[in-house]
């Protein structure tokens, strides 16, 4: 089989699509901004934006359509309600794509799960049997590959490392809980913490990238914010490694671009909490595939179903 | 195949063995006290005690030998160094059993993993695809069944829920870390906390069972100790459920006998931290098999290898 998969990555800020061959090479891809949320954006406006993008990559010989989409969703039916896309609530994404691409397999998973799959198939986790792939960005998400296969969980929601509790009396989380990793380490959370601690950025609405840039210039509050996030990541990864005994943990997403400013405190906290031999053997590495990881992973749902598509 | 498996459970206080048929029924079993640790107990003394017990159950038509043993161990070779059995350090348990039972499959896993397997195969997790089985006793351990199969992890150590961090500035743990679930919720840890908080037990060297008995009688410090353990369990189970999306969490072990004194604060903390729909669907239930769970699970390594024995 040499036909490429049509891969789709649906996020709160961008819609991406591309063709990915059976070896995981991205042959062509493009993106458009996700239509801004609000009263003027209804479910069909967003769908039409996606259809417009897909037209460029639709061909006569597709192996199938693989999709990563923000969660939560009812899985594997993929009735999606992405937290950061208010226009879609219970939107029947898989059914709509099936109608749009009759006769082709259509498979949808969480976007962070697709990134983890991409990193396992063709990135930093390649060749390993037990891998945690993580995205640290506007949110904190992930996916589990254990025993060489993607773990879905009872409802298709395994991989939510962003909601591992790192401080039971920590800040409230958007999920409704408290002290989740995501509440501390997500980009907007970091920015808010830094502003409250006295950070004075140049821009009115600063981002995690601005914070990282200021930390590189030595701003002590920006450095402390990344340190706080790094340590929270280290604690959560220690807990997850004790539970799952990963060989490799691949950390990607925009905030991972902070490099040592994030990874050094991460390693420090991991080292304090992961003291047993088996956990200390786990390697924590930067993700390798960058922005195409989600497309590569979405394509893997089509190209390598024996490992990555196992709805029970 | 109707031959029974010889099942063995090796712990710090007792050695148990029995015959378990292919349906998971325990046909016969017995136990002896583990020879006391100390300078007079060497590795061979312990081995002879085990051999003596096994002689009772050795028969001409065994399907194989399944073993649960305290960790850590090098797996699947099962060179075991149980934390609570100092006489064995790097003891070649699987090799010795293979020499003792020539021609039979011999399979060894962590004792808490075997309990989780037993509960999945024939206990509280039966019929579910994604199950966490836990033992809350002198230590806190567990095992993961995901996608219907036992998860081993990169080095055979998956399932260490006792070392999920529930309080990053919490008490030191015997593993060398800090704030692990086990540091707070293990029986001896609870007893120590209660004594420091003013508990006045009748016995000089009280146990978790004494603490539970006093809590049942309304001793406020004993109640508070169980509450502290229950809440720590709830936080750790919330984290684990977010990561793995379990359908069922089965909680067993001596301390689980405290019933509502432990399970009510557990449910309270879980409810505070597990707010997403998928996590709230997980059911937390008492384990069903009691003291034979480890034997049943050890036998499953032999009788149901397609689910429970997958070294890569």
TrEMBL record, chains A, B:
Superkingdom in the source lineage: Bacteria
The family this protein is said to belong to: Belongs to the ROK (NagC/XylR) family.
Protein name: ROK family protein
Source species: Actinomadura craniellae
Organism ancestry: Bacteria, Bacillati, Actinomycetota, Actinomycetes, Streptosporangiales
